[in-house]
Amino acid sequence: MPNRSSPQDRMLRIREALEASWDGQTSYKAVVKPGNPALGQCYPTARVVQHYYPETEIIMGTVWTGESEETHFWNGLPIGEDWYHIDLSWQQFPPGSMIREFVVLDRQHLGDSEPTLQRCALLLNRVEDYLRKHSPSSSHGADAGEICG
Q: Are 146 and 2 within 8 A, CB to CB?
């Protein structure tokens, strides 16, 4: 029987799976900082979210941390004329950080390098495994597609 949880529950499960799957192999330049597992995880995280929610787009922006400007990626969901921002790796930034500017990327021309594609694929595989293993319906053989959407 398919899992009929709410969209919010599915998003929370994906967030949990992402957080459990992040490490130096999935982060930008293999960066790891104790106490900040989201650091460097924004782009592969945005790609995984887009996998499960294909109606979202990937957004690239500049974040002011209070000390420096950082490039950051997250997802946006266009509904009518409005954009709803979904950022599952924002916690990498200190409190008070703010977005200075952003653009929506063209999904057909992302120009990802091979190492970036490998990081994204690794994170997606880990998330799929996590969701399979931690789903209430995992004992019934559900796959990630049934679990998430």
A: yes
